[in-house]
Amino acid sequence: MTSQARIDANRANAARSTGPRSAAGKARSKLNARRHGLDTPLSTLPELRARSAQIAESFSENFGEGRSAPAAAAAAASASVAALAHLQMLRVEAQRREVLSQNVETILARLVALGGVEADVAELALALGLAQAAPELLALERHRRRALSRQRRALQALLSTEAAADSDGAVRC
Amino acid sequence: MGGMTFSFSSAAVRAGDAGPYAALVLEGVIPARIADLIGEPPLTRLEDLSIYLRLLAAFIETLAPGDIAEWTWTKFIVDLVWERRRLQRAKVLLLEQIQRNLAMNLLADPAVLREARLTVAERTDLASGVAAAKPQAIATFQAHLARLGKDVSDVGDSAAYVSIDQLAPVNALILLCEQRLDETLKTLLKWRARFHTRAAAALADASLAANATGEPGHFDIL
User: Fold this and answer.
1) Residue B4 resides in a domain
2) pTM of the predicted model, to two decimals?
3) Where are the domains of chain A?
4) Which residues touch B82 (CB under 8 Å, ≥6 apart)?
5) Helix, strand, or coil (residue A22)
């Protein structure tokens, strides 16, 4: 059990530290616990809004063209969701690529430092780097599975709007 | 299912903006707008982009994706095939490396060194030969082991034990690739029957990937 003296000392030490004061310091320290940011909802990242809108436009262009106004609106709404899901999938894949690349480069540097020629040890570095990265890649699977499932649902919703529009067309004909 | 083709009503993206897919955009294999949407190839710096592009082009030709959903699935399937290939090759190399290390350790035994009078270079060559399962190297290696009162089954058992420890996460990733491919095919079966038929045929045809990349044997060893 923690002694009272230790508790008092901890409180006294904590009172002396008030954390970063400048805006830059606060901006930096708020990212201290951030690992890859894949849990951050995309809708809260303004830098990705333009890209998301661009992807949504491509999706709705593909699925909403020539439809009645309500069908086009439904397609546009589904396209926005699909675009976010697609973007999240791209983020997860980029993170997986980054994890693998970092591990491979570390191993490659070690093999080259031991006297290996990069071209000769490249394949071995890739294999060893992959083995080293494998636990982290497995840990990222949770994000990948979630992104995939979201993307699958969004694409199905988009395809449903297509099927509904097709059946509307059949009735109108 | 409605038969759709991708619309290019917006301004076309120039091939020069297509990044890693520029070659395929120029050849008309991938529309420029699609190249902008499907994300980067899943490669490290040490992997050959041209081989990946050949694999992608072969799948595009077979799958003939129409709308953006089908393009997304095509890229996803190709990336999984690439990842599975990378994992399988890594697994083979890791096993070889484990055997090589083990052989090196056994050959470093003072008794072997004394009797066989192997130089470091000879030891390295012999260990590599054993790892690559060259008959002559294995025979020489067995002769050295016999002098120590061991046989080659000691090497096999030890190698298997070590490989389980080091290869378990790699094996898990290979299984995940297989699961993802199965899940994708199930989704396609539900939503895009004709595309599913083409995708299933492409995945079942090991020669498709092997011919595209010029690397027979690396796509059909599961």
Assistant:
1) no
2) 0.76
3) 41-172
4) B41, B42, B43, B52, B55
5) coil
What is the least distance, in Å, from the CA of A106 to any CA of chain B?
Answer: 12
Interface of B with A (CB under 8 A): 1-2, 4, 6-7, 9-10, 33, 37, 39-40, 42-47, 67-69, 72, 79, 86-87, 89-91, 93-94, 97, 166-167, 169-170, 172-173, 176, 180, 183, 187, 191-192
CA distance B49 to A97: 14
**Separation of first and last alpha carbons in chain A:** 80
**Count of domains in chain B?**
1
Contacts of B176 in chain A (CB under 8 A): 138, 141
> pLDDT (tens digit, 0 to 9) for every residue of chain B, 222 residues total?
333 333 333 333 444 456 899 999 999 999 998 998 899 999 999 999 999 999 999 999 999 998 888 999 999 999 999 999 999 999 888 888 777 777 777 776 666 666 677 777 887 788 787 777 777 887 888 787 777 676 655 554 444 334 556 688 899 999 999 999 999 999 889 888 899 999 999 998 877 877 777 765 544 433
The ipTM estimated for the assembled molecules is 0.76
Which residues from chain B sit within 8 angstroms of residue A149, using beta carbons?
none
Please judge whether B170 and A131 are an interchain contact, meaning their C-beta atoms are less than 8 angstroms apart: yes
Measured CA to CA, the distance from residue B185 to residue B125 in angstroms comes to 46
Q: Which domain holds residue B194?
A: 15-213
| Alpha-carbon A71 to chain mean position | 30
Q: How many CB atoms lie within 10 A of CB B137?
A: 18
